[in-house]
Design goal:
Layout: E1 4-9, E2 21-25, E3 38-43, E4 49-59, E5 74-75, H1 82-97, H2 101-108, E6 118-125, H3 129-141, H4 147-158, E7 161-163, H5 164-170, H6 175-183, E8 187-194, H7 213-227, E9 233-238, H8 244-257, E10 261-265, H9 273-283, E11 287-289, H10 296-308, E12 313-316, E13 328-333, H11 351-361, E14 366-370, H12 375-383, E15 387-391, E16 402-407, H13 408-413, H14 422-434, E17 437-441, E18 451-453, E19 470-471, E20 476-478, E21 485-487, E22 500-502, H15 507-517, E23 523-526, H16 536-545, E24 551-554, E25 567-572, H17 586-598, E26 609-614, H18 620-626, H19 630-644, E27 651-659, H20 662-678, E28 684-696, E29 699-708, H21 711-727, E30 735-740
Helix pairs in contact: 1-2, 1-11, 3-4, 7-8, 17-18, 18-19
The structure holds adenosine-5'-diphosphate (ADP) and zinc ion (2 copies).
Amino acid sequence: MNKLYADIIIDISHEKLDKSFQYEIPSALESEVTIGSRVEVSFGKGEGRKITGYVVNISEKPNWDPAKIKPILRVSKDANAIEDQLIALAAWMKSHYGGTMNQALKTVLPIKKKENVLKKKEVTLILDDKKANDVYVDLVARKNHSVGKERLLKALMEDRQIPWDAVTKKLNVPTSVIRDFEKSGYVRITEKREFRKPTDKIEGNWTKHHLNSMQQGVVDTFVNDYNQGIRKPYLLYGVTGSGKTEVYLEMIDHVLKEGKQVIVLIPEISLTYQTLVRFYRRFGDVVSIMNSRLSPGERFDQFERAKNGDIQIMIGPRSALFTPFPNLGLIVMDEEHDDSYKSEQIPRYHARETAVQRAAMANAPIVLGSATPSVESFTRAKSGEYTMLSMPSRVENRPLPECEIVDLRQELMNGNRSILSMSLQQEMEKRLQNHEQAMLFINRRGLMGFVSCRACGHVVKCPHCDVSLSLHKNGKLTCHYCGYETEKPAVCPECGSKYIGGFRAGTEKIEEIVKERFPGVRTLRMDADTTKGKNSHQDILNAFSNGEADVLIGTQMIVKGHDFPGVTLMGILAADMSLNVSDYRCAERTFQMITQAAGRAGRGDMPGRVIIQTYQPDHYSITSAAAQDYEEFYKMESTYRNLMNYPPYCHMLSIQITSEMEPEADGKAKMLAEFIRSLGVKVMIFGPQDAGIAKMKDIYRKVIYLRHTEYDLLVEIKDKIESLLLENNRYRNAHVSFDFNPMNGF
Ligand code: ADP
Ligand code: ZN
Ligand code: ZN
């Protein structure tokens, strides 16, 4: 048998990750050493010194003279160190999602940057009051005495400790004077590491809600399991407004009392001040948050605080999953269905699966919460893999909003060409008269260039895949899944109308229309453009919450998790736009979006009303969302997925090939497809074909899709491709990457 060699990193600070050293794996250790193992090696010349390192790669190829490669001494087994846990998680991510171990480590380990460390220096008087006074009298009595010394000593006699900055800037005392005082033994200079804290400005108190029996039942199940040592994943399926957050708070409270730490994952977009305040008021200073607006330094500080035990709860988007809590006791993932949990950077991990994995490794439970669970999670909960916890009604029995579906084809037939249906206009009129608020939601996902008929709503679809075709710049319609291509029709193939084309409408356009229709109306807009500034997102929400506008017009951003008691009307302008995206998940996304949007209306004392405008009033994602009936939706959707071999019934691997030179990308894609076929495994292979976006920034993109019921089989194929690429140099100008169960077209 061939000898095996391991690449080992001996320093896991971020900037050193790319530097690895090769060691031989002695045959006695072969079964023990895996990627991610912590090992002991001798480092340096001759005998060297013994140090620990981590295995990042294993191969049969020595990088230089095998006689000079030292052996691994032993494998360490202390799995309690938090670094070890995170590195083991990175190894799992590498094997589960592809990419290199370094890429996985960089995702998991915090960025360490020395210059970002904040230090606070202080000057402290160490003389007692009497002695200080003597020195002062003595000093002032001197001729030509230093005014700086006089000022500093006087100030120190009032406040014994003064920050260095205040001494040099406010008191304007030169540093030489401070040093002089230090030498004379008057003062001590201390340095304290200061951590940035994002929760500094929160005030107010927590008011306890008495949990209703439904909430209490869920908490009891969790707590009983916990006390019996049961650690597993739960799906908390609760309608919008059922009080999921209160339930999380109780669960967290229980785990904290056991001396453990908690990670709360929230989609970045719904991580608002409101959410933070709810957690902070309940748990105080042990809470911290992370978001993409924190600088790397601030982020590093957060992680240090977590490691030191200064904080016990970390709230944040998917990257908060890697908080180095040494004693993790619970992971909560709110809005578990959200797309933002999937990373688009290599490794393209899904935070939900990775969180389930981290929880299992830490022997901690995980609670996935949603009003519209992902088909994946709901399927797992039904099969018993996750435990289902459900909350089917709103707190205080507030009614779910009343939904009306408006058929836009009918509107056009009735001569209304406005994007606001008659029904929506009437309802808006009423709100304006009653000084209530309305929200208009534009489903921007649909702005991706599908082609539909304005007369009958027909959407041009691929005959092989049941996804809509995308209009490319060259005027052709293409299927992102199988590569099918056809000319854009001049008239609707269904009804012959010439009103067929791409559908586009932005918030600005809608605002114009609303202002024209309702002169004097006060509007606010919220979309990617209006929320570029650091706090603009929150400013708009606050302004609307304070009643500074009658109508809030926005994209996805307005539907996530905000609580506006004054809103009694939600208009969903083109609900089915997202149905026409070429993606097998489009019905799920549409259902989620409408349900979440509808959930925004009627959260206060006044009942809410929702108007769903659509060209496809009969589509199950629309009708079941209007009825707020998740289970009906799930029934239809899972049948469809099952029938079409889509996840979760089949797993998908997208192999993406990119190159600046088209023949390279093309050649490599064909070579890989042939290689996969030669493996003789029964896997469904689609392609190679142009990617949905065939060229991006002058890079050509090809893709091969594989589908199989066994995830591990796809991982095996991925591993074989990775080995092939190491040996085979053909088409070396083309780059290959992997995306398992992709969430977005490529
Ligand atoms: P969800 O996350 O399920 O949509 P929230 O946790 O945001 O629901 O709760 C909705 C609203 O109901 C919030 O304003 C919350 O303060 C309130 N609430 C939650 N639980 C209770 C309760 N037991 N009694 C009264 N109000 C509650
Ligand atoms: Zn038509
Ligand atoms: Zn197709």
